[in-house]
Amino acid sequence: MLCLCDAVPRIELRTKICLVIHHRELPRSSNTGLLAVKALVNSEVRIRGEGRAPLDLKDVLSSEYRTFLFYPTNDAVELDKALVLQEPTPIQLIVPDGTWRQARKIHSRHPELKDLPRVKISTPNHSIYQLRAQSRPEGMATLQAISSWPCGY
C-alpha cells in the first residue's frame, strides 16, 4: 500500500475547518476530508456516530469566527469571495463528511448547529477526477469542496 502522507503540504489560513466526520468514513481509503485536515493547519476533526453519547459541538461555536455549515440546503448562500469579504472576522466552516445520507443528518442530530447559516458551492463539478459517483452535478469529494472556494482570505 502506498501512502502520500509525507507529500501533503501544510497550509496556513485564517479560515478554520471543523470536519465533522461520520465514524464509518474513518477507515475508507477514499476519504478526502481527513486529507484536507492534514494539510490545513487551522483545522480539526470531530467524529460523530460513535457510541451512544451524541457528539456535542457547542464548544466549536465561537465569536472569534463567522461560522457557517457547509451543506447545500435550499436556503444556503453561495460560498464565494463576496461572502468572505463582507466582514473582516475570519470564517469557520463546519464541514459534514460522509455519504450524502450521513451528512444530511447533521441538521437533525446537532441542534446546536440549527441556527447556523448554510453555505454551498453550486458550480458544477467538471473535474475528470472522481473518487465516488456523484448524484448531483455540483457533487464533489470533500477535499475538492474545501479547496474550491476562496478560503485563503
Shape descriptor reads globular
Sheet with most strands: strand arrangement: 2-1-5-3-6-4
Radius of gyration: 15 Å
Helical content band? 10-25%
Provide the succession of SSEs. Answer: EHEEEHEHHEH
Which sheet architecture does the biggest sheet show? 6 strands, parallel
The helix tally amounts to 5
Strand content bin: 15-25%
Q: List the uncertain runs.
A: none
Distance between the termini: 36 Å
Number of strands: 6
Mean pLDDT: 80
Query: Based on helices, strands and strand pairing, what is the structural class?
Result: alpha/beta
Q: In terms of topology, how is this protein built?
A:
Elements: E1 16-22, H1 33-39, E2 43-48, E3 66-70, E4 77-78, H2 81-84, E5 91-97, H3 100-104, H4 106-109, E6 118-120, H5 142-147
Parallel strand pairs: 1-2, 1-5, 3-5, 3-6, 4-6
Description:
With 153 residues, this protein is an alpha/beta fold. The protein is 17% helix and 20% strand. The chain is built from 5 helices and 6 strands, in the order βαβββαβααβα. The chain has helices at residues 33-39, 81-84, 100-104, 106-109, 142-147; strands spanning 16-22, 43-48, 66-70, 77-78, 91-97, 118-120. The protein has a 6-stranded parallel beta sheet. The chain is globular, with a radius of gyration of 15 Å.
